[in-house]
Design a protein that fits this description.
Order of helices and strands: HHEEEEEEEEEE
Shape: elongated
Number of helices: 2
Number of strands: 10
Oligomer: single chain
Largest sheet: 6 strands, antiparallel
Radius of gyration: 35 Å
Structural class: alpha+beta
Distance between the termini: 108 Å
Helix content: 25-40%
Length: about 230
């Protein structure tokens, strides 16, 4: 027991001497050692920053994509409601006045006045392929019981959506024809040209989240086919 205790005391003294010697040594680290340590620290820090930025960017892109998709669905739902209750303003006219890739004009009923109104959905204000969607409402001016006249100036103009791509038609007329029936599309029609007597309007929304990263994977595509009840 005495020898073991003496050995323990010896070890403690040895460790204390080495510790004091280490504390008295003021030689420090060499320039090479410091440089290597700083380079390694910078590399580790840069890696951590890159990982954090990538995670934050992916999270932000996912949130922006979800928000854009929700706004696009809400916009399509609004157009769908209006189209399903579209009416024939003129006794001899159609439900749809005109249609092309960027513009859809049809008639509905004003909730407040219960009179016919002219609705114009238009993709416009395009910058570098990204456009806005606006709704213009035109009030009825007069009618003789057969033909309805609408105001030249819009009663109301409402901004609906931003970031619409113009690489595909936004609106199309659709109709089942033939036997066996096949879906036929109308890309353009007007009161002065081919009649707009199709019963279905196809809406294809392609949008890119504003502020998101570039790339086709960030583009949102939604499609809806709306059957008009009074067509």
């Amino acid at each position: 027991a005495f020898r073991r205790e003496s050995f323990d005391v010896y070890l403690r003294h040895l460790l204390m001497r080495r510790l004091r010697a280490r504390l008295r040594d003021d030689s420090g680290f060499s320039v090479v050692e410091l440089s290597v340590a700083m380079i390694l620290s910078a590399m580790v820090s840069a890696s951590l920053v890159a990982v954090f930025y990538s995670f934050s960017q992916n999270s932000s892109d996912a949130n922006q994509r979800a928000d854009t998709q929700a706004q696009a669905r809400e916009m399509i739902a609004e157009i769908t409601v209006q189209l399903r209750q579209a009416i024939r303003a003129d006794l001899n006219g159609g439900v749809v006045e005109s249609l092309d890739a960027d513009r859809l004009v049809f008639y509905s009923t004003n909730y407040e006045t219960l009179e016919p109104e002219r609705l114009v959905y238009e993709r416009t204000e395009c910058t570098e392929g990204a456009c806005e969607l606006w709704l213009h409402r035109y009030a009825m001016v007069s009618t003789d019981g057969i033909t309805v006249t609408f105001a030249a100036e819009s009663l109301e103009s409402s901004f609906l959506f931003a970031g619409l791509l113009n690489d595909q038609p936004l609106f199309q007329g659709l109709e089942w024809v033939g036997d066996p029936a096949a879906l036929s599309s109308v890309s353009q029609c007007s009161t002065a040209g081919p009649e707009c007597e199709f019963p279905i309007v196809g809406i294809t929304v392609r949008a890119k989240p504003l502020g998101g990263t570039s790339g086709s994977q960030s583009v949102i595509t939604l499609h809806e086919e709306v059957r008009m009840r009074n067509a």
